[in-house]
Design goal:
Helix content: 40-55%
Number of strands: 9
Structural class: alpha/beta
Radius of gyration: 21 Å
Number of helices: 13
Strand content: 5-15%
Order of helices and strands: HEHEEHEHEHEEHEHEHHHHHH
Largest sheet: 6 strands, parallel
Low-confidence stretches: 1-14
Mean pLDDT: 94
Oligomer: single chain
Distance between the termini: 69 Å
Shape: elongated
């Protein structure tokens, strides 16, 4: 083997085996972490809140006590936590990631949080000498498991290029949208579209069922026409079968729509249908459904119609 080939191989191996801090191993985070491990990376997990899942630990999965300890060991630190306050706490709280940030390290927040707060978070991370990307995801638990997530990134092109192989290990549709905050803005827009599509499918199936048609057959027919969509395919089936285990919890989708509605007020933008979808999620909450998959929105419409499409 020539020196040139050997050097290239060593470079590829070095690029492959990165030290990654991964904080947040819930429904989405755990399979994302597993896919990074499958790609050959060593992951460090913080146990400041919960114990790291046992099946993530081993030769390439190491548990440490705090986010600061994780950042000390890692080249790249990924956060995948529920909301803005949790990101801020993990990064800037006591024993937080920021305490161990230095030039050359990269923080990637893959949570779905406020675009406005993200810009301030990026500024604070940059002041440590480290780089920052916001990279929220879409695709749900299935996308996370299958490494098929859509990843919407905000930040510098050079930083994005350095960690693109990590994104490739977790997703398929990966786009650098713009600067810091633009990834989160894109995710909020995504959640508006998803919520309104779920509402449209739910309304259609409730209407069809109340009129006496079989909602399963209606869905099957619509899948062959212009109304066909991923939401009709996946969530329409959930509605018909009544399988509302998350998935993506209603409480989390409510959080994302709150980001949309808060941002809209600040921008002077009207989002009337987004507000309506949020009210339907609120109805689900009142019915005890905060933990349902967001396709469970149909149950709010069933409640309002006094009609269950599954004959329950």
């Amino acid at each position: 083997m020539s020196p040139g080939v050997g050097s290239a191989g060593a470079a590829r191996q070095e690029e492959k085996n990165m030290k990654i801090g991964f904080i947040g191993t819930g429904i989405m985070g755990k399979p994302m972490a597993q896919n990074l491990q499958k790609a050959g990376h060593t992951l460090y997990f913080s146990e400041h809140y919960n114990k790291a899942p046992a099946d993530l630990l081993g030769e390439n999965g190491i548990a440490l006590a705090t986010p600061s300890a994780v950042a000390q060991e890692a080249e790249v630190i990924i956060t995948m936590v529920p909301n803005t306050p949790q990101v801020e706490d993990v990064l800037f709280g006591a024993n937080g990631v920021a305490e161990s940030l230095t030039a050359g390290k990269i923080v990637i927040d893959m949570s779905s949080i406020s675009p406005i707060a993200t810009k301030e978070i990026a500024k604070r991370v940059n002041e440590t000498g480290a780089d920052y990307l916001d990279a929220p995801v879409s695709g749900g638990e299935v996308g996370a498991i299958n490494a098929a997530l859509t990843i919407m990134v905000g930040g510098e092109q050079s930083v994005f290029d350095k960690v693109k192989p990590l994104f490739d290990a977790m997703g398929k549709n990966i786009t650098l949208v713009g600067g810091n905050g633009d990834g989160q803005t894109t995710k909020v827009a995504n959640q508006i579209i998803v919520a309104l599509n779920i509402e449209a499918v739910a309304e259609a199936l409730v209407f069809a069922s109340k009129a006496g048609a079989d909602p399963a057959k209606v869905r099957e027919a619509l899948m062959g026409g212009f109304a066909s969509s991923k939401i009709l395919e996946v969530h329409g089936e959930r509605m018909v079968k009544g399988t509302f285990d998350p998935g993506f919890r209603i409480a989390l989708h409510q959080k994302d729509l709150n980001l949309a509605l808060t941002g809209a007020r600040e921008l002077g933008v009207s989002l009337p249908n987004t507000a309506g979808a949020q009210e339907l999620f609120n109805t689900c909450n009142a019915l005890g459904g905060a933990g349902w998959d967001h396709s469970g929105m149909v149950k709010a419409l069933e409640h309002l119609a006094n009609h269950n499409i599954r004959g329950e």
